[in-house]
Each structure stands twice: as C-alpha cells, then as structure tokens.
User: Fold this.
Amino acid sequence: MMSGGPLLVARELRKSYGPTPALDGAEFSVRTGEVVAVMGPSGSGKSTLLHCLAGIVTPDSGTVTYDGRGLSAMPDAERSALRRTEFGFIFQFGQLVPELTCVENVALPLRLTGVKRREAERTALHWMDRLEVADLGPKRPGEVSGGQGQRVAVARSLVTSPRVIFADEPTGALDSFNGERVMTLLTEAARSSNTAVVLVTHEVRVAAYSDREVVVRDGKARDMTLERTK
Ligand SMILES: Nc1ncnc2c1ncn2[C@@H]1O[C@H](COP(=O)(O)OP(=O)(O)O)[C@@H](O)[C@H]1O
Ligand SMILES: [Mg+2]
Assistant:
C-alpha cells in the first residue's frame, strides 16, 4: 500500500484536567506508513495528544477521525476492538507482564483476539527475530536488559500487524546506544510493514528516523517540517 490520504486526523483538540488545559486546540495528522515524531517540553501535552489519538482519552472538544470514522462517536466496544486490532502501543518502560515469558508477552495481543497459542507464538517469534531478540523467548522480563525488554515491547506492538503504532518515549529509559538501536529497529520494521508510527521522543537524531516532526507547546501542535520548507 502506498501512503495516501491521512489515516488519522485530529482537529481542534481541547482537554483540561482542572483549570489548566493539557490540549488547547491541537491539530495533528498522520498518513499510512508515515513516521511522525512528536516533540516538546515536559508537560506540554504530548502524552495527552497520543491518548486522544488512540481513543484512550476522550477530548473535551474537537474530533479524532481514524480511517474516516470519528472515534468519539464510536460505541466503546468498537473503539476497544479498534485498539486491539489496528493500533499498537509502546511505553517508556516496556510494561511487559512479569509472570509471562518474553514470547508469551509478544504473543499476548494476538491471544486476546482469539488466536491459538501455537500460531500466536509463531507470529511472535517472527517479530522477535526482526527485533533481534528471538533468543530471549523463554526468559522472563526480569531476566533481560532494559534495551532487550524494549525490543520485546516493540515486537509486541507489531505482532497484530497494526496500522498505527503509538510510542510514548520508548527510548526514554535507555542509554543512547540502546536507544538508537530500538529507534532503528522500530522504524525499519514499521516502514517494511507500512505501519504508521506516532512517536513521542527526545532522541536528538530524530530527523534520521522520522518523515515529519511535530512540536507540542502549551497544548498546541505545530508541524516543524512545514515551517522549515516555508
Ligand atoms: N490524568 C491527569 N490528571 C491531571 N492532570 C494531567 C493528567 N494527565 C496530564 N495532566 C496534565 O496535563 C498537562 C499535559 O500533560 P502530558 O500530556 O502528560 O504532557 P507531556 O507528555 O508532554 O509531558 C500537564 O500539565 C499534566 O500535569
Ligand atoms: Mg508524556
């Protein structure tokens, strides 16, 4: 699939927690297969934007449209199903289930959609191989390094072949060597499967990984790529 029109579009998003707005008229869009880096100071509204885009948080006003469908208008069950099947998530600290092995963690999103264990683990191992952590399959998260754990988390985000991956500072807890490795493997895997990535990051070499950079400041999002080409 070529990257065509916007896959996910946010218009005029506003969201307040108490008196101070977390989002104050944010605009955002991402196309199929596009990697968009979201940057900005701490507390500027990056995570809130990500959560609104993914349908985890409902904005006070404004719209999020995924593949032509409004997220707020969708029944809860439909929105949850969308999150399970079409979206993938990566967080700052892998948030792997400590009681499960690494391969079971990666297979989990498939198991939750009803895929049988053998098939789910076969697909999981394919993605673990892509992320160069296939040998960690039988280990538990507590037995692997931070960088390895994040690569397992990236494999888990890809296992359902989602159309969008939301990554909130996925390398924030890693040293620069491991951070760069995770960024490279994540963006290569996403590009090869034409998966869009909305990537909140502080990585300095972010332009090397992303197609476009958006800066969030005081709850407003601004496309830096457009600014630069003006
Ligand atoms: N669940 C919440 N309850 C109260 N305030 C929140 C909550 N989530 C975010 N905020 C506030 O909204 C603002 C934006 O937060 P956030 O989106 O997490 O920023 P960022 O990810 O850029 O650091 C901050 O002032 C933060 O304190
Ligand atoms: Mg945040």
